[in-house]
Structures are given as C-alpha cells and as structure tokens.
Amino acid sequence: MASENLDGNSIRKIQNMLRKEQTGDIRDTQSAGLALKAYKTKASWMMIMRDGKWTIAPFEMFTAEDIPELRQLVVEARQLLKEGRDPQNLFDAFREQRDVALAKNKAAVTHGIGKTWEEVRDAYLAWATDHKEKDTVRGYKSALGATPGSVLERDFEPLHRKPVASITTKDLVRVRSNIIERGQGDLVRQANLTVAALKACFSWYLNQADSLIETSPAAQLSKALERAKKVKKSPEQERTFIQDEIGLLIYGLEFATNPAARLSLMIQLFTGQRRITPLEALKSDFIESDEYGMIWRLDDKVDAWRTLPLSPTAKSAVESAMALTRSDNDYLFPQQRAYKIGQTADGHLNERTVSTVIEELRGEGGILEPLPFSPSTHHLRKAFTTTMIPKISKFVVDGNRLTKNDIKMITHANEGRDTTATSVYDKNEYLDIKYKILCEWEQFCLEAYYKIREKMKHGK
Question: How many separate domains does the chain show?
C-alpha cells in the first residue's frame, strides 16, 4: 500500500502494475478513502475505509482530470457512512451522471429522502384535485405528461425518474422543445400550456415544507419562442358531422370492442355533451321519471348544474351502462384498470379510452376514414349545436321563441345545485322543452342511422 497525492503519475503507476500483473493500491493523501487498486489484469477506483471497501468505477472510466471530482465524491460518501447509509448508491449514480451533485440527489431518492419528478408531479396533481377546478386539473394532468400512454408522456423523457433537485431549466427547455419538434410548429399552444403547468407545479413544490429545492427551475422558463403556424383550412376541413355521417358514426359504434366506451359516446352524442361529462357521471345522477322516463342531473366540468330529460336512445344507453357497471364504484363508467401497481381502480373510465374508439373509426379502413375532416369526440357536441341552433326558434317557453343562445340550456347552462336537486321530481316547462329538443335531435340521428344500416345490409 502506498499513499500519495493522486495525479497522472499515480495513474501511470497503476498502468505499469497491470502490465506486470502486479497487485496493490495507491491511496490519496488529500481525500481520505479515495484509492486506486490493481488486481493483476484490471484496476478500479475505490473508496477504502477501515469499515469496508467500495468500488467507485472501473480504472479506465476516469482520468487525472476527474480526480478533483472523485475527491469530492468520497467526501460525500464518508458523510453517508456517518449517517448510517450505504454509499454504493452514490457511486452507482456518479458513474451514470458524472456529476457529484446530481449523483447525490439520485442517491437521496434511492434512500427515500429525495423525490423524483414523477413523485412531485403526482403529489401536485393530488393537491390540485382538492384545491382547483376539475377542468384545470385535467388540463394540468395532460400538460404535465401524466396521462399514461399519451404522446406528451414521451415528451417528458428528459425528466423521467430524475430527482427533482437535479432538474434544471435546460431540462424543462428540452421538454418544451420536444413538443414543438413533434408538432413541427403546430403545437406551440400545447407547449405553452405545458410551460404554464410546469411553473405551477414547481411553484407549489418550492413552497412545501419538505421541499429540497431553493429555487424553481421553471421560474426562467419562457413560453415557446416559435410562432404558431397558421394553416388556413377549407370549409370542408373545419365542418362537423352532417346527417348521413352521424348515421355512419352510430353504425360504426356498433362494432366498437369496448362496450363502456361505446355507450359513453352514445350518451355524449344523444345529449350534446362534452366527452368528459358522461364519464364523470355517477350512477346516482340518473333518476327514473314518470313524465320523461329518465332524468340526468349532471354537474359538468365547470361545475354547471342542470337537468336533462333523456331521449329513449340515451335512456337505453344509460340502462345498458348500469348493467355493466360495478357495485364497488360509484361511476356510471368505472375505471377499467389501475394505472400503477398498488393503485385502486376507483375512478372513472379514461378519456383516452373513449377517444381511441373515434380514432379507430377514422383510421385506415375505418368507416369514417373517407370524411374530409378528422373526427374527434369534440365533433359529437359540435354536430348537436350546429344542427339544432337553426331549429331552436321553433320552440317556445313562456310565450317566447327560443334564440340560438338558448341551446345552452342543454350544453352548459348552470341551473344551480339546489334547483336541480328538486326539479328532477317535477314536470315543468323547461324540462318539456329540453325533452322536445333532445327527441328531435334523436330523430335526426336515428333517421340517418337507419338509412346507413339499410345501405350496409344491401351492400351499397
């Protein structure tokens, strides 16, 4: 055993020992524990202490230029030993990170002290669920790449499993750039939504008592520097479903392999709601009615309460969904699987599961493939408003003809929690009008469906 100030000469000595197949070690006099050790045919950077020996890295991984960093690494390792923690995780992380501070943060996560990006993100979303609007939380979940299998999840690769204390502004810039590059200039708005969500998430974490960061890496993160591309679309590309295409949609839904997703889309279509609204519906929100068959007392994404008397087709879809639901879940469309090991499946059906049905219908060989626009769940609601607004003036309430703004009584008017709690049990003029509007819309849709079904039956 020799002791000296480790430098380039020490490295050459170890190289000579290897050529001669000699064994031995050289220990550093500046940082107690740091050593170079030769084993005849190979050598290693080591930490050798009275309490034990640890391999830092293979000999060839570092040069004389890395010795100052290795000395600092051993200082941190000795501190871990004082705290009763194994330093091997620190050495393993250093080989990957080549940076003592980053390795220290990663080792802290391994020892249960620090947190990874995913842990902080999920904790923030859990907090936001209790303190922010549902729609805000849903937007943040998507913008932060927390939706399993989404393209945004892949955009967050620079942060995957990274200790939050090691995340830099440059890491966040790379996330933003991934979104911009993927969209080839068309996703500037999405990138800016992600920037806003990152700022909110790190601001929240910075202000937690157990936070391990002193400043937010998102503080200096700007919105996308690129300008959004403005692509002028033709009227055909911007329109929604016309009547015959609604028939194609309903016919195509009959072959959807996920019955819950299919029924959710049927309820959305026949009630003119957003994709999320049927998914968030509780079984208790649907009340049998002598006057209207069934009434849906709904609370949508912006906490707008209203009652909708369901048309026969929508009522049938709800009843079919009730038959498929689970007794251990309050939602009409229960979550179908846990997203992570150990989690419960007590939420509602994933929005992406529903959207996938439409994507398959518009994909290659799908019944909606020939359409000149790219159908999505958004177009179901748009088709309802586009079709029924021109017809709305035929309906009268209190002697007054309805105007185009009155379509909101179905799509997003807020009648109040207390009012809807009692109105579901009474016959009233507003429910009558809603029922007439929705039944006329149902007739419009089914007329197209029966026409398409006959064509398909005869191979036309």
Answer: 3
In which order are the strands placed within the sheet that holds 52-58? 2-4, 23-28, 34-39, 42-49, 52-58
Domain C-terminal end among 190, 206, 222: 206
DSSP annotation of 263: H
CB 358 within 8 A of CB 264: no
The maximal CA–CA distance of the chain, rounded, in angstroms, is: 106
Tell me: do 129 and 93 sit in the same domain. Answer: no
Mean pLDDT value of segment 432-456: 95
Do 98 and 127 lie in one domain? The reply is: no
Return d(Cα 460, Cα 448) in angstroms, integer: 15
Outline where 51-187 has alpha helix (H).
67-82, 88-97, 100-110, 117-131, 134-143, 151-155, 169-183
- Which residues have C-beta within 8 Å of that of residue 66, sequence separation ≥ 6? none
Same domain, 322 and 398: yes
Q: Is residue 224 part of a domain?
A: no
What is the number of alpha carbons within 13 Å of residue 391 lying toward its C-beta?
14
Kindly state the DSSP code that residue 226 receives in the 8-state scheme: S
The CATH number of residue 401's host domain is 1.10.443.10
| In a domain? residue 44 | yes
Across the range 140-154, mean pLDDT stands at 87
Q: Are residues 144 and 89 in the same domain?
A: no
pLDDT band at 21 (very low <50, low <70, confident <90, very high): confident
Kind plus residue range of the DSSP H or E element containing 306: strand 305-309
Nearest to 261 by CA among 382, 145, 377: 377
Nearest Cα residue to 411 out of 389, 393, 440: 389
Residue 147: the pLDDT is: 81
- The residue with greater pLDDT, 421 or 85, is 85
pLDDT band of residue 303 (cuts 50, 70, 90) is low
Give the tens place of pLDDT for each residue, 162-185. Answer: 888 888 999 999 999 999 988 876
Note down the domain range covering 141. Answer: 117-206
DSSP for 357-403? Answer: HHHHHHSTT-TTTT-SS---THHHHHHHHHHHGGGGGG-EETTEE--
Q: How far apart are CA 157 and CA 102, in angstroms?
A: 17
| In contact, 192 and 132? CB cutoff 8 Å | no
- φ, ψ (nearest 5 deg) of residue 211: -65, 140
Which tens digits make up the pLDDT trace of 449-458?
Answer: 999 999 988 7
Quick one: 165 and 289 in the same domain? Answer: no
Domain assignment present for 222: no
Asked if 367 and 255 sit in the same domain, the reply is yes
136 vs 357, residue with greater confidence: 357
With respect to residue 219, please indicate whether it lies within any of the assigned structural domains: no
